User: Which sequence fits this backbone?
């Protein structure tokens, strides 16, 4: 009868193994093989990994990925926090703002891509037209800069509301007494923000940063729909590279190896960021 | 160091809306310079509201707050030189204990050298020396509350300190130590203090004078001794003391010029000094007597010495003493009496009770009639 608890865990274990464990193992298996359509798979050892790490296209995608995630974080986190601070604390305004913020989050990714695709198309799009009026040429399929900031804008528009919601919930949870004490201690508005709001939001900010970091690393649909990763490979990020390798290039072994490298980078990076943020402002030092 | 005057303060939350609630009806109160005061009352009686009005966190609907005669009603908290310690410890988590203590001084632009000497003085007084460079997150709520207190009294110009139920988060076993340090700090600096609590024991041990509030009104502001001995009404009588005063509904008569209270068939002689103030036509009268003033006797008295027969319903052992609850025979009047811990008595036993006239308080319409 001692085994009984395991019976209760069985459905969950089954679900996890189907959804995560078995695919992961399959990918690990593939990553060691040379798998080309129509040929017999053979063992390749670490060959796939070495080839990918040496591939300039991978290095380029990785570099762009880091830059993109960095830009996403330094824009979305401060912007989200600022918007959350501007939101009403009570009254009918709360519901209205929450619904407005929820709209981008409710739209499926590919629809977001299509909306922006139409919005930015050089023949019928509104955006190129507006730029034309002010005398600037805008073309996402021609100019790297245009493609970049458009993908960034899409991500910021789509995901900043999530950061706002997380921060807003965190702000609501800060007891009013902290602000009262700051008033009595004659703290300036900046010092109140620095010593009351920020430290109390640390937990939710860690969550927001990690979520956005991991999610931005997975960006796929937006550049894919907008320019297919172009112009050239200007908006080819890790996910686009991986899928091209595996599906476009029919190199399942390489694709699997890329996935694992990709997976490892995301985990390592999230862990590092988590540790850094956990220690940030937590030191016993005198930081004023 | 300051005298705080609460003048005609009235406060209504959400005035004009359907949720309108009157938190404070009208209160006048003067806290003398350098005294320790407590504000006591049941939950929801307006204590915290009054405190926030004094510290400036809340603007009163009507009335004025005067500090040393100066009207500060329109001044923000920062300009009132009043510190406040909240119900749960408010600390700045990203700073160590030193940084927390220094925070109000740094905000006021005090030079670092002076900050250091003041921090050391306060940490010595509150016995926080050993943890000056620890992060408050690692300390318990007791120490954090002391840090919060230290932040309140560290400013040289702090004239008053308000405590809003500061012991809520403090473990019972640590309360005594914390209270002692709070009291020492208050005396050391001669700060006018107002301590809000719903625990009368805390109020009476901390304060020289206690203000008791009920339903947004100040009922009595007096020393602990007077609150206990001469409550102004039945509410105070019942509220102060544990258990509270026995309040027995009674009739009134006069025999040979001496007033007597009737408890059913029983007669209780009252202090003859009361006679000129009583009106025999009164209804809604109560006699009040402290459980500790009730004399209990197990053996039947030989002659009529004013003892009333009663039956014991309940005996509660409270360590150093016992509280017995007895019903006067032929009535449904319940009386609580305090007897020694070794007083041998069983539930269901017959006892004789006596109420010494000088210890009896008389109430009409729930207001005390002074002798």
Assistant:
């Amino acid at each position: 009868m001692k085994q009984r608890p395991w019976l209760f865990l069985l459905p969950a274990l089954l679900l996890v193994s189907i959804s995560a464990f078995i695919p992961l193992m399959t990918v690990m298996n593939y990553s060691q093989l040379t798998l080309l359509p129509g040929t017999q798979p053979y063992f390749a050892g670490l060959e796939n990994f070495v080839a990918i790490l040496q591939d300039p296209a991978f290095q380029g995608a990785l570099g762009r990925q880091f830059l993109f995630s960095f830009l996403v974080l330094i824009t979305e986190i401060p912007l989200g926090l600022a918007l959350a601070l501007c939101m009403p604390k009570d009254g009918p305004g709360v519901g209205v703002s929450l619904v407005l913020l929820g709209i981008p989050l409710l739209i499926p990714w590919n629809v977001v891509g299509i909306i922006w695709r139409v919005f930015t198309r050089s023949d019928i799009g509104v955006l190129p037209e507006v730029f034309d009026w002010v005398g600037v040429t805008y073309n996402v399929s021609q100019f790297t800069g245009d493609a970049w900031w458009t993908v960034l804008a899409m991500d910021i528009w789509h995901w900043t509301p999530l950061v706002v919601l997380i921060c807003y919930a965190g702000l609501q949870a800060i007891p009013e007494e902290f602000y009262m004490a700051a008033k009595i201690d004659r703290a300036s508005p900046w010092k109140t923000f620095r010593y009351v709001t920020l430290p109390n939001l640390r937990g939710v900010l860690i969550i927001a940063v990690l979520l956005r970091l991991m999610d931005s690393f997975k960006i796929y649909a937006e550049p894919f729909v907008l320019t297919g990763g172009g112009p050239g490979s200007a908006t080819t990020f890790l996910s686009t590279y991986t899928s091209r390798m595996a599906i476009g290039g029919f190199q399942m072994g390489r694709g699997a190896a890329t996935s694992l490298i990709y997976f490892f980078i995301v985990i390592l990076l999230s862990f590092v960021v988590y540790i850094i943020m956990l220690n940030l402002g937590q030191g016993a030092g005198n930081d004023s | 160091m300051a005298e705080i005057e609460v003048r005609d303060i009235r406060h209504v939350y959400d005035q004009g809306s359907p949720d309108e609630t009157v938190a404070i009806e009208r209160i006048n109160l003067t806290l003398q310079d350098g005294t320790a005061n407590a504000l006591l009352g049941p939950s929801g009686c307006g204590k915290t509201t009054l405190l926030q009005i004094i510290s400036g966190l809340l603007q009163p609907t009507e009335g004025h707050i005067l500090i040393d005669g100066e009207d500060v009603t329109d001044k923000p908290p920062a300009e009132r030189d009043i510190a406040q310690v909240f119900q749960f410890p408010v600390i700045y988590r990203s700073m160590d204990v030193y940084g927390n203590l220094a925070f109000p001084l740094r905000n006021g632009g005090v030079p670092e050298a002076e900050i250091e000497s003041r921090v050391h003085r306060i940490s010595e007084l509150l016995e926080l020396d050993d943890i000056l460079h620890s992060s408050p997150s690692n300390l318990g709520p007791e120490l954090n509350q002391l840090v919060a207190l230290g932040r309140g009294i560290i400013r040289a110009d702090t004239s008053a300190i308000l405590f809003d139920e500061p012991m809520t988060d403090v473990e019972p076993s640590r309360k005594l130590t914390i209270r002692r340090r709070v009291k020492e700090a208050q005396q050391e600096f001669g700060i006018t203090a107002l301590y809000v609590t719903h625990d009368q024991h805390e109020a009476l041990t901390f304060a020289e004078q206690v203000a008791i509030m009920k339903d947004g009104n100040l009922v009595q502001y007096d020393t602990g001794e007077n609150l206990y001995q001469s409550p102004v009404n039945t509410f105070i009588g019942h509220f102060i003391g544990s258990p509270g005063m026995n309040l027995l509904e009674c009739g009134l008569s006069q025999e040979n010029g001496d007033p007597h209270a009737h408890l059913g068939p029983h007669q209780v002689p009252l202090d003859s000094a009361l006679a000129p103030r009583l009106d025999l036509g009164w209804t809604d009268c109560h006699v009040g007597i402290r459980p500790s003033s009730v004399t209990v006797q197990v053996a039947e008295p030989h002659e009529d010495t004013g003892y009333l027969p009663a039956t014991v319903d309940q005996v509660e052992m409270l360590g150093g003493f016992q509280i017995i609850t007895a019903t006067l025979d032929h009535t449904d009047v319940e009386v609580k009496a305090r007897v020694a811990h070794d007083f041998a008595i069983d539930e269901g036993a017959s006892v004789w009770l006596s109420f010494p006239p000088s210890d009896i308080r008389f109430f009409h319409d729930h207001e005390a009639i002074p002798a």
